[in-house]
Amino acid sequence: MLKGKNIIVGVTGSIAAYKAAYLIRGLVKKGANVQVVITPAGKEFITPLTLSTLSNAPVISEFFSNRDGSWNSHVDLGLWADAMLIAPATAATIGKIANGIADNMLITTYLSCKAPVFIAPAMDLDMFAHPTTQQNLDRLRTFGNRIIEPAEGELASHLIGKGRMEEPDSIICVLEHFFAEQKDLREKKIVITAGPTYEKIDPVRFIGNYSSGKMGYALAKACAERGAEVILISGPVSETIAHPNVTRIDVESADEMYNEAMSVFPHVDAGILCAAVADYKPAVSMDKKIKRESSAELTLQLTPNKDIAASLGAIKKEGQVLVGFALETNNEEAHALDKLKRKNLDFIVLNSLKEKGAGFRCDTNKISIIDQKGAIAEFPLKLKQEVAVDIVDKLATLLL
Ligand code: PMT
I need a surface site. Which of 187, 226, 295, 357 has the fewest CB within 10 A? Predict the structure, then answer.
């Protein structure tokens, strides 16, 4: 699973840095290409010579290696990697990466890295248990970073507790497992809709909804990380995405989203329709601001929008896969199944507003995936990044 994978190993200043030597040797033995990036403090614990000998490549530590104008590009490194592993990760490095304090090569590389990041903390038990460290780790989890929990045992301080960096073999297993589960989507093209639509009432008002785009953007990232070319058609959101595989098309209204989706869909392998598209728009949108004339009621006449999912379902060709979402408040499964059939979807992702932590705006979601046979797979509450991986796993089984 690791053969040919490009892995950045970040080493920071911890006594557990000696384990990085075993880790790197293990990764290289499995056929991975390893590039070590070490912090200045890391070099106090293990020499670059040891690490470069084991990784068969010069260790990177400084932005400028020679005083001849040459420099190490953290951006190129970030794009080269299939995964980045920071092991050992000290409390200081965890705090810096959680807050974007880019004062060494390892951290700038982390910030430029488009690949999945794994972090194996190593520190004393009280440092690990401290709310600051835990909050920083939680923040990194919300970025989609995977934390490889430290083990319990005797620490460098001779105290016993949780903080020992996980053993190299176990870390390698985590990576192998990750790559084994990741069905490669290279050479696949996927269109994803995300966010809300705004339906214009007049120049200052619109009909919208609470969608933040978080779920759709997490899906775009998950597909891109597996090598797919992603076209992300996004309603107005404050989410951002910077991945070379993602092309973002910004739209505002359901009509605009429909036009973009219809023109892109014939050229892609799959569509994931995560946007919360307004079902109705004002029958007439005014050119001038509607004035409050008196206390009389104002009636807004609405007309239905085109159903993007149903329209794509109608033109879907053999071999294309179409995934929809269903956001429900009652009779969830029956409604979702009905949408799956009506819109000619291959599977539908049901999220219910009745579930705490699911649906709009939050960083988590709780989903069920319903397939064409009506089989239902339920998933626990997870971060939207993790939910996206579950959905892309399912998509990959149909695409490959
Ligand atoms: O953006 P977040 O804050 O992270 O929230 C994520 C989410 C809750 C928006 C997302 O998980 C979700 O449920 N998206 C679909 C919301 C929705 O509009 O559901 P629906 O049951 O009304 O629509 C069913 C399906 O038809 C959806 O795939 C929808 O994109 C699609 N649809 C609906 C109407 C329409 N005119 N065109 C469509 O394509």
Answer: 295
Same domain, 193 and 164: no
C-alpha separations of 240 from 182, 188, 213, 248, 254 in Å: 24, 22, 9, 10, 20
Tell the residue nearest (CA) to atom 5 of ligand 1: 360
Q: Which of 238, 277, 315 to mutate to test the pocket of ligand 1 (most atoms within 8 A of CB)?
A: 277
Residue 151: name the closest of 130, 166, 173 by CA: 166
Residue 333 lies in a domain: yes
Output the tens digit of pLDDT for each of the chain's 400 residues: 798 999 999 999 999 999 999 999 999 999 999 999 999 999 999 999 999 999 999 999 887 665 556 566 777 888 889 999 999 999 999 999 999 999 999 999 999 898 899 999 999 999 999 999 999 999 999 888 999 999 998 888 888 889 999 999 999 999 998 888 777 898 999 999 999 999 999 999 999 999 999 999 999 999 998 889 999 999 999 999 988 899 999 999 999 999 999 999 999 999 999 999 999 999 999 999 998 877 788 899 999 999 999 999 999 999 999 999 999 999 999 999 999 999 999 999 999 999 999 999 999 999 999 999 999 999 999 989 989 999 999 999 999 7
Type of residue found at 359: G
Q: Considering 6, 72, 209, 344, which one is annotated as catalytic?
A: 209
> Which residues form ligand 1's pocket by a CB distance below 6 Å?
193, 195, 211-216, 254, 273-277, 279, 305, 307-309, 324-327, 339, 351, 359-361
* Closest C-alpha residue for ligand 1 atom 20: 326
Looking at the fold, whether 159 and 200 belong to one and the same domain comes out as no
Residue 343 Cα to ligand 1 middle (Å):
13
Please choose, from the candidates 213, 241, 233, the residue with its C-alpha nearest in 3D space to the C-alpha of residue 365. 213
Q: Are residues 234 and 118 in the same domain?
A: no
Degrees, nearest 5: CA angle 261-385-255 = 20
* Closest residue by Cα to residue 60 from 44, 46, 74: 74
Model confidence, pTM: 0.73
Q: Are residues 254 and 283 in the same domain?
A: yes
